[in-house]
Design goal:
Elements lengths: L1 E7 L2 E2 L3 E5 L6 E10 L3 E6 L5 E6 L4 H6 L5 H14 L7 E7 L8 E7 L8 E2 H6 L5 H20 L2 E3 L7 E3 L5 E3 L4 E3 L5 H21 L6 H8 L7
Parallel strand pairs: 1-4
Antiparallel strand pairs: 1-2, 1-3, 3-7, 4-5, 5-6, 6-8, 7-8, 9-11, 10-13, 11-12
Length: 232
């Protein structure tokens, strides 16, 4: 383990306790920011070109959840491992760090550094659809892969609760990679809760697509609706 800090747009970040790391540097420099919104900040690191995601703590309760591995950052790291165990492709995670002391100066719950998919020709699926950058055959291949991945999660009692097409990257060949997999696992003892949560995630995904301009075709909508678990 080591302590790490970051230079974020000219300001030094809070310290982090790093439990998995690939570099010996104790301070990284953020080259530029890709996304900066309430849940997180995502950017590219200078020199390495890797992607870093800082997860913001929405309340002090989230620091407490770190103690029993139930925080949002823990769920995303574990989610990546679970999807990989299912045989799904996810970005390689190089480094993970956790915020140490909750205070007003400690903005982030933690961070992780992962593979940058863009140089390999992968882009957000939502962007590819909006820009009509894929033909019908490739789109069908991609959507079938997304469906099969969600079905595998359903069969293993896994809910990707905030799933949307920004969570899938694809290339010109229709290969896909899943990112930011904040998941929750269930078992047969709480099967009814699992059904409710899984169905909610699928319905939310379909609504999100149509609401954000990533309109699903009728065939695609029917395909994803077939994942819904009937209530007994």
């Amino acid at each position: 383990m080591k302590f790490s800090a970051f230079d974020i747009q000219g300001k030094k970040s809070q310290p982090f306790l790093t439990t998995r790391y690939a570099s010996t540097s104790q301070q990284h420099i953020l080259d530029y920011v890709l996304v900066d919104h309430i849940p997180s900040l995502v950017g590219i690191l200078k020199d390495s070109g890797l992607v870093i995601k800082f997860i913001r703590a929405r309340s002090w309760h989230e620091y407490i959840k770190l103690l029993w591995n139930h925080s949002r950052i823990t769920k995303e790291i574990r989610g990546s491992e679970l999807l990989q165990e299912l045989g799904l492709h996810v970005p390689k995670i190089h480094e993970v760090g956790f915020g140490i002391v909750p205070s007003k100066k400690h903005e982030y719950l933690g961070y992780y550094i992962m593979e940058n998919l863009t140089p390999s020709g992968f882009q957000e699926l939502s962007k590819l659809i909006k820009e009509n950058a894929i033909d019908d055959a490739i789109r069908e291949k991609i959507m079938t892969s997304v469906y099969l991945g969600l079905k595998m999660m359903r069969d293993k009692y896994i809910v990707f609760s905030d799933f949307h097409l920004d969570n899938v990257f694809s290339n010109e060949y229709g290969e896909i990679i899943w990112i930011d997999p904040g998941v929750t696992t269930y078992n047969k003892l709480n099967e009814n809760k699992f059904k409710d949560k899984f169905n909610h995630s699928i319905n939310r995904f379909i609504f999100y697509c149509n609401d954000r301009g990533n309109t699903l075709t009728d065939k695609e909508t029917a395909l994803f609706q077939s994942l819904l678990i009937p209530k007994q």
